[in-house]
């Protein structure tokens, strides 16, 4: 006869109370603090907080709700803006790439979303569609290519484009915008040249101007016009080469944490992980932490990339796996499974990890995968 299942086995299955493994702690008070830094640097500008790409991986709706101090929000795509509206976000919303089709333009009208207009085809859609609802006109930002050569209309075409859009009863041009190509390098004269080109186009037209991204807010005086559009600085990372976020008074918003799940007492010469690319130089403890490229930790991170174990730097060793990394535990020889591990954030700037991995903070933040729960805190 088969023994009856024990009570422990037949008890209803519930998820464990405390989540283990990688979590991204999102510090909403740091977010508000960083918005304050941007506001103080551009005291005469209104602030459009950029929350595209799921708020640089921080969770778009939670971030939008935590930024009541922003005068507006910007995203890249119409679908992102609709997501914010459907979540109940009511303030001004701007789509930086503009509408991708006539249908998207009509959706922008319905949802009360502002769009950038950066090419002739988008101008034509406005002429064809925008008259449909002249009670709630579609807000437009005309995007000018002042030197980045990514998106934007040629400066010479602007007078004609403004005249055509001005003749559309269902649309209203709110301003001229442009984007800085090299503002991360404060020495580059292109940034101020781009600002002068936009100022010259706006002169005498009574239109708002919008130029600055985070690097502009921090380092390009001429870009702090009617509206600024900070993104990365709100999340507490520095866009300027040679200046740390802490130097700029910014606080990290995301701290990516996990735990040690194994500690191996290894021997001199033991090879670590896939390909055995690193071997122990002496008898030593090697830790395994539960995070890998399946969570968005960069596979390119080389041996030596800093990681914190119980707050102490312990270098990554060997190759990054999908779900795990190896750590040299000699700096914390009594470390044991369950000990907290920090990949970046509080105590370890994401820019430092990005630099080791040959990328930028933006990419590491954006590519934290959906497997990693975001936990909002306001400490
Ligand atoms: C992403 C973006 C921003 C924000 O840039 P940061 O460098 O993150 O401050 C501003 N403007 C435009 C047009 C963008 O695409």
Summarize the structure.
Helices cover 26% and strands 22% of the residues.
Structure description:
By secondary structure, this protein is α/β, with parallel strands linked by helices. The protein folds into 2 domains: 208 residues, TIM Barrel (Alpha-Beta Barrel), CATH 3.20.20.10; 124 residues, Lyase, Ornithine Decarboxylase, Chain A, domain 1 (Beta Barrel). Helix content is 26%, strand content 22%. It contains 12 helices and 18 strands. It has an 8-stranded parallel beta sheet with strand order 8-7-6-5-4-3-2-9. The protein has a 6-stranded antiparallel beta barrel with strand order 10-13-16-15-14-17. Strand 14 and strand 15 form a beta hairpin. It is elongated. The model has no long low-confidence stretch (mean pLDDT 95). Pyridoxal-5'-phosphate binds next to helix 10.
